[in-house]
Design goal:
By secondary structure, the protein is α/β, with parallel strands linked by helices. The chain has nine helices and five strands. The protein is globular.
Length: about 270
């Protein structure tokens, strides 16, 4: 198990020994009141199908199933879950540095090959007790997951680290798209992409559908694995997610008529020919 206090082996070396990307270090789930965990689970499932619904809708939903909540409590749960960048509210970009917001570059763009466009996002992961966060990077053309990580905090450093691991493994994409969350509307994120010659694209404010590819992946992994197997700790979650992504990569997808790995590899071969 990873030991942050180990003076002999750095975190990087411990990850190398265990064959775990440094950006995917597992942590103890964040504690939360049992009632709040149950409410966040209800909200998370509902938001997978209705990603643009906001505070009023969630208040009505939770009251409808017996939780006497108000807007203030629901806003806090939204924030804890990391959904602030998805639902519409007047001061959506208050915490984002406006100078780092970039336009959406994918509208009307014909995506014809692997590593042309990658999309990334963060999602809330319910655990047996508490919760964690997961981020992933998906290749839009092939639907292959290029990189992913699990953490108990949504930091800029974590997001950049997962992307950096993906680029070191697979090479650079032409465009990286994200939402307007504070992790992405930051100097750290935009500077990293600019220094690597990668175009920065961001969803329109409140438009979860602009990043539909990663949203579909979240829906798949949550319904097929996360909700069915609530984990006790981060290591168990990491191993389960890793196995599920391996299966996801091998499975034929209706939208692309083949598996993500097959489509990705065929595209690379065609480009090299």
């Amino acid at each position: 198990m990873i030991n942050p206090r180990d003076k002999k082996l750095s975190l990087r070396k411990q990850c190398a020994v265990l064959n775990i990307p440094r950006s995917s270090l597992y942590y103890a789930p964040l504690p939360e009141k049992p009632e709040n965990v149950k409410m966040m689970g209800i909200m998370d499932k509902h938001l997978l199908d209705h990603p643009t619904e906001g505070v009023v809708s969630m208040v009505n939903l939770l009251r409808g199933v017996g939780y006497p909540v108000g807007p203030k409590r629901v806003r806090r749960l939204f924030k804890v879950m990391g959904y602030e960048a998805i639902y519409r509210r007047r001061n959506l970009t208050k915490n984002a540095v406006k100078e780092f917001i970039r336009p959406y570059l994918l509208r009307g763009l014909k995506i014809t090959h692997a590593n042309q466009v990658w999309c990334t996002d963060i999602t809330y992961i319910p655990m047996a007790k508490g919760f964690l966060y997961m981020t992933a990077v998906i290749d839009v053309y092939s639907r292959r997951i290029m990189g992913w990580g699990i953490s108990n905090s949504m930091t800029k450093k974590w997001c950049v680290g997962v992307l950096d691991d993906a680029i070191r493994t697979h090479g650079k994409p032409e465009i990286v798209n994200s939402d307007q969350g504070s992790q992405y509307t930051s100097f750290d994120w935009t500077n990293y992409l600019n220094q690597n010659g990668i175009k920065v694209s961001m969803d329109g404010k409140g438009r979860a559908t602009d990043n539909a590819w990663i949203e579909r992946f979240w829906k798949t992994i949550k319904y097929d694995y996360i909700y069915l197997n609530p984990c006790d700790n981060g290591f168990e979650l990491y191993e389960g997610v890793r196995k599920h992504i391996d299966y996801y990569h091998q499975k034929k997808h209706q939208s692309i008529k083949m598996s993500p790995l097959e489509r990705y590899e065929k595209s690379l071969i065609k480009k090299a020919a």
